[in-house]
């Protein structure tokens, strides 16, 4: 079955979220950033053109000279209504520039003619005009001639700093730095907004996982579901968060950047852009296909190398046989054969990697040369339609294409990983808890008669082998019972059935004749409390750990319960007593201290039925002594089920239930079972014999 659900990422972050809240802000500012990129490229073109022409421009033809003079003429402010007489003389071009032009055309200088009236202007206009030190005038003239737009003309006329070379260069560089700084600030803002969106998504998913874990976790016999929830909570949610961040931050940014670059290239020369785009797109497609083949071949070669290396390592384990039977020569030949194959595969891997890098670099060089050739040929054939500065800008744009295109490619790869992680999360969230409260459930009174299991069958999944099969047991109220079995999960399954952490596949669990499936979960779990010595402490103060956030219990009641479980003494020794913080960032307790704290937590509620799972870890002698005294109080006037880890607990209880193959094998006190039940004797020996720890300890560590 596939690990990927096609709509999993869309379910975590629907497309409509792009138009809400912080994501909408990212889209807006990414668009603004794209416009600033276009403005930055225009400034780059103006700087290049200024350095190329150095403010020199030469125009031939009366009509073109008139157009240039119109650009040179500064816009006059609107005259008052009373002023009806025109000015005596129109503005003249720079005298030194006209004298240079006249000196180039005639051998001897002639006096400059006075400007003619407006009606005779066309007759006095020269047919050639050469100007120098005009700032960005060549760029303005080229854009005005090509696009017939008055924007550049208006800017040039209204900004005197752009009308001389040095001031224009300084102004353009300064404005470019300001625009670049604004773009950096906008990208930083977009990044923060994207982080906010991804954090909101991750918080939502973690809340959902937490709620689902509260529903599914209590019935986790083996601990696998808890481990799965932990992995989902930490790893998979982190992957989805990273995917959402890159999706929000990168999709609009890369798309707008690509569109801006393409729009500017098309506006400069759409035919040239098309001629360059087609081979570049083909090269990119070929490179992507080659990368897939390369990754596949690379993975196969690595598998072969690992196989050969394993065969070489296996020879090290058979040295006794080789030396014992005199097989040195055949073994050496075999070793050399595998070593040669290993070396050959290593060389093959190097060749694969080398060809992959060569093809990628070759394609990059070919595409670069092709773009430069096409642009250079256009400049040589028709320099008026594509000046050198515009050509350099076009080449730079096509080189810059790689960033947004590769960014989009990586973006979809990250989304694919996030989709797999989101699929795992939603599969877990779609699980239906087995335990639910029935409609019309009744309130359960404290247990007074008996706890009974009627023909109970239970398995982890409907298709897995049963842990309990036809399990029948009746436990009188006020007695203490230990549950033991060679199958580790069987006693725990019996214990989990009582507070309905799990649901039987068939059969019933009765308390005083009432089926627990038809009583409220709140009343059932208030009267049947499970205490495990393997559970960690809650994050919070000692008082909050015992009260579990229930403000109805006073500090005096908390102290009384702690004294009954012999937890009060070690609590008083903590830095702040009952106000000491426990958990990841607080004090650490030993296994025995955590267990006694759990007993106090249960005793505070005074349940009629307690289920105790003793800790599996070793306990010090003082803790064992204190537990013995605590048990003498806990076991009085209360029904207790115990999953024991100490032999003294087995000797203390009224009866021991031996479970085998899902059924009750024997029920009696510990001393009688030692005499009558071979199965119990075997179980007790494997758990409590004095040599059990040394069996698993290597000799060198003893």
Features:
702 residues, ABC transporter transmembrane region fold, 6-stranded mixed β-sheet, 24 helices, 14 strands, disordered C terminus, transmembrane, ABC1_TM_sf, Multidrug export ATP-binding/permease protein, ATP-binding
Brief account:
By secondary structure, this protein is α/β, with parallel strands linked by helices.
Shape: elongated
Number of discrete helical segments = 24
Beta fraction of the residues? 5-15%
Strand order of the largest sheet: 8-11-12-5-13-14
Look at the structure and name the CATH superfamily of the largest domain.
Answer: P-loop containing nucleotide triphosphate hydrolases
CATH architecture of the largest domain: 3-Layer(aba) Sandwich
Number of DSSP strands?
Answer: 14
The amount of helix comes to 55-70%
Mean pLDDT: 84
Q: Describe the sheet with the most strands.
A: 6 strands, mixed
Separation of termini? 48 Å
CATH class of the largest domain: Alpha Beta
- At the fold tier of CATH, the topology name of the largest domain is Rossmann fold
* Helix/strand/pairing category: alpha/beta
Overall number of structural domains: 3
**Radius of gyration over all CA atoms, rounded:** 43 Å
Q: Give the uncertain stretches in residue-range form.
A: 79-123, 698-702
EC number: 3.6.3.-
Main location: membrane
Domain ABC transporter: 451-686
Biased composition (Basic and acidic residues): 91-113
Report on the architecture of this protein.
The chain is an alpha/beta fold. It has three domains: 21-74 and 92-175, no CATH class; 195-429, Up-down Bundle (ABC transporter transmembrane region fold); 450-692, Rossmann fold. Helices cover 59% and strands 10% of the residues. It has 24 helices and 14 strands. The strands form four sheets. A six-stranded mixed β-sheet has the order 8-11-12-5-13-14, with helices on both faces. Strands 4-3-6-7 form a four-stranded antiparallel β-sheet, with helices on one face. Helix 21 (621-634) links the parallel strand 11 and strand 12. The chain is elongated and about 130 Å long. The protein starts with 7 loop residues before the first helix and ends in a 14-residue tail after the last helix. Mean pLDDT is 84; it is low at 79-123 and 698-702. Keywords: ATP-binding, Hydrolase, Membrane, Nucleotide-binding, Transmembrane, Transmembrane helix. It holds the Pfam family ABC_membrane. Residues 161-417 form the ABC transmembrane type-1 domain. Residues 73-84, 115-125 have a biased composition (Low complexity). It is an enzyme of class 3 (hydrolase).
